[in-house]
Amino acid sequence: MSVLSFTNFFGTRIAGVAVIVGVIFFFLHKRREGETSSNSGLDIKAIGHDLKQKGIWFWIILPVIMNALSIGIALIFLPDYLEHVVSRTEAFLSWNLLFLLILQLAFFALGEEIAWRAFFQKQLGKMMPIIPAVLLTSLLFSFGHIVFASPFVVLYDIFFVFINSVLYGIVFYRTDNAWISAIAHFLANFSSVVFFLWIY
User: Fold this and answer.
1) What is the per-residue pLDDT for 92?
2) What is the 3-state secondary structure (H, E, C) of the chain?
3) In the predicted model, what is the mean pLDDT of the chain?
4) Burial of residue 153, with CB atoms counted within 10 A of its CB: 0-12 exposed, 13-18 middle, 19 or more buried
5) Which pLDDT band, with edges at 50, 70 and 90, does 13 fall under?
6) pLDDT for 4
7) Is residue 92 within 8 Å of residue 193, measured between CB atoms?
8) Cβ atoms of 2 and 140 closer than 8 Å
């Protein structure tokens, strides 16, 4: 997964394969260790309980706020960033495709959370303290999302991807449930799409 995250730097667009690799390794590890859903990091039965956890909604909604902040700042100071995001997502930016987009965003959010949080972050957390595990996971996650443009636009974009990834990592750490971090991830991605649909 780590190596695949760096492939964007070499002009290939295969970093997304890291998610597939992570999901496969998650299920292989779960089977090899004989983990149940409740201790694997992917417990659908615990969703209701986890969503009632004190303070969890603050962490779930914070990525949505970060997206609004990044878009708001860009509207004033960095319109190139908005054009950068629209150029890579314009095929999906349509009210007519919203239902299909919701399904796609939910599917990708869950896949990324299984790979990066339930597998990668959880395994790193066994080898190091949680703060470096979350930061390293988020750094590699961010590298996998690089789409080249002007250096400042790319740095701005990746900075907010990194911050949101840290927030997903916190949600996962607090709940040990990728379903909950996937909810945060989905809401953040969906809010960005809605913000861009209103702007453009």
Assistant:
1) 64
2) CHHHHCHHHHCCCCCCHHHHHHHHHHHHHHHHHCCCHHHHCCCHHHHHHHHCCCCHHHHHHHHHHHHHHHHHHHHHHCHHHHHHHHHHHCCCCCHHHHHHHHHHHHHHHHHHHHHHHHHHHHHHHHHCCHHHHHHHHHHHHHHCCCCCCCHHHHHHHHHHHHHHHHHHHHHHHHHCCHHHHHHHHHHHHHHHHHHHHHHC
3) 92
4) buried
5) confident
6) 84
7) yes
8) yes
* Mean predicted confidence (pLDDT) in 122-132: 97
Q: Are 138 and 99 in contact (CB under 8 A)?
A: no
Torsion of CA 48, 53, 54, 57, to 10 degrees: -60
Question: According to the model, what pLDDT value does residue 91 have?
Answer: 62
* Residue 19 or 2, more confident: 19
From residue 154, give the alpha-carbon distance in Å to each of 9, 81, 83.
12, 8, 12
Higher per-residue pLDDT: 100 or 190: 190
